[in-house]
Automatic annotation (TrEMBL):
GHMP kinase N-terminal domain location: 83-147
Tree of life domain: Bacteria
Lineage of origin: Bacteria, Pseudomonadati, Bacteroidota, Flavobacteriia, Flavobacteriales
Protein name in UniProt: Mevalonate kinase
Species of provenance: Winogradskyella bathintestinalis
SUPFAM superfamilies: GHMP Kinase, C-terminal domain, Ribosomal protein S5 domain 2-like
Keywords: ATP-binding, Kinase, Nucleotide-binding, Transferase
One Gene Ontology molecular-function label: kinase activity
C-alpha cells in the first residue's frame, strides 16, 4: 500500500508575523514529499514513524467531534499493520514535514472531509485551517494549520490576516531570470517549540511589540504585495529591510554561524537572508537579484534554488 503524495512547503513571508496578523505567503515546494505506506520489512525509521503514528491516533480520537471525525477503526488497524509516513521531507527544517503527514492522514481517514475538488469558499478554507491547526498541535504544541493546508491543497496560499486566507496565483517563474529565491542548509535541526517560546517571551516587552508592528510586519506585508504584483525592484528593497530587522531583533533564531554571512549580504547587496519557518536551524531563505553573484559569495554553502525571477 502507498497513498498519494503530499508535498513540502515554504513560507516565503510571514514567519512569526502571522502569529500577530501580518500577511503571509506560502508556496508548495515539490522537491520533497511524503506518503503513507505499509512495508513487509520496515526499517528503523519506519518503525519510529509507526510508533509516533500510534500516539497520534490516540490524540486524534480525543479531538472535538464537532470539528472533525475520523474512521479511527480503519486508522488504528492500518497503524497496527505497521503503517508509517514515508517521507523525503527533512524534519526540523521549516519545510513542513509534520504538515504533509497531517494532510495525508486527513485525506485518507477524515469522515466528512472537505475535498480539494469542491469550490473552496473562504469558510471552507478557514474550517480546514482550524482542523489542521488542532491536528498539527500534536507535533508543535501550537500550530497555525497553514503547513498542512498548503500540503493538502498543493496551491500557494495568501494569508491576509488570521481570518482571511485564500488560495492565490503567483507570478510564473522566469527560467532564464537572473534573480532567485534559494534555500541554504544550516546543517542543524531546528526545534519549533523553543523558538516560538522565545518569541512569546519577547512579546511581553513593549519595545519588541512595537518593532514587530512598525517594522517587521510593515516590511513583511510590503514583501507579500510586491511578490504577488511581480514588482521585483520594490521586493528587494523591502526584503533588505526585513533581513536587517531580523538580524537586529531575532538573533536567537539565526544559527550562530550565519550571523556574519547575514551581515555580509546586507553590506554587499549580493543576497539577503531571512528565516524559513521558526529558525533555530534547518533552512534559511535567501533572495538575490543575481544568482551567480550570490553563489560566488556563498561558496561552500549548500544552496538550493526554489524560484527564479
Amino acid at each position: 500500500m502507498k497513498g498519494p503524495l503530499f508535498y513540502s512547503k515554504i513560507l516565503l513571508f510571514g514567519e512569526y508575523g502571522i502569529i500577530k496578523d501580518s500577511k503571509g505567503l506560502s508556496i508548495p515546494y515539490n522537491f520533497y514529499n511524503g506518503a503513507l505506506k505499509v512495508d513487509k520489512n520496515p526499517n528503523k525509521l519506519a518503525q519510529e514513524s509507526n510508533a509516533s503514528l500510534r500516539r497520534f491516533v490516540a490524540y486524534l480520537n480525543d479531538l472535538d467531534k464537532e470539528l472533525v471525525t475520523f474512521d479511527i477503526k480503519a486508522l488504528q488497524s492500518d497503524v497496527d499493520s505497521g503503517m508509517y509516513f514515508d517521507s523525503s521531507i527533512p524534519q526540523g527544517y521549516g519545510v513542513g514535514s509534520s504538515g504533509a503527514l497531517v494532510a495525508a492522514i486527513y485525506d485518507k481517514y477524515a469522515t466528512d472531509k472537505i475535498t480539494i475538488l469542491e469550490n473552496l469558499t473562504r469558510e471552507k478554507l478557514l474550517k480546514l485551517k482550524m482542523i489542521f491547526s488542532e491536528m498539527e498541535s500534536f507535533f508543535h504544541g501550537k500550530s497555525s494549520g497553514l503547513d498542512p493546508l498548503n500540503s493538502y491543497l498543493s496551491l500557494p496560499i495568501l494569508i491576509n490576516s488570521k481570518d482571511h486566507i485564500e488560495a492565490t496565483g503567483i507570478p510564473s517563474q522566469q527560467t532564464d531570470g537572473k534573480g532567485a529565491v534559494f534555500l541554504l542548509d544550516s546543517g542543524v535541526v531546528g526545534e519549533t517549540a523553543p523558538m516560538v517560546s522565545i518569541f512569546m517571551e519577547n512579546m511581553k516587552n513593549e519595545g519588541f511589540r512595537s518593532m514587530l508592528k512598525d517594522q517587521f510586519i510593515k516590511h513583511t506585508d510590503a514583501c507579500v504585495d510586491d511578490f504577488l504584483k511581480g514588482d521585483i525592484k520594490s521586493l528587494f528593497k523591502n526584503t533588505k529591510q526585513l533581513s536587517k530587522v531580523v538580524l537586529n531583533n531575532f538573533k536567537p533564531m539565526i544559527p550562530a554561524q550565519f550571523h556574519e554571512l547575514w551581515k555580509k549580504g546586507l553590506e554587499t547587496n549580493d543576497y539577503y537572508l531571512k528565516l524559513c519557518g521558526s529558525g533555530g536551524g534547518g533552512y534559511i531563505l535567501g533572495f538575490t537579484e543575481n544568482l551567480d553573484k550570490a553563489k560566488e559569495a556563498l561558496k561552500g554553502q549548500k544552496l538550493e534554488v526554489v524560484y527564479n525571477f
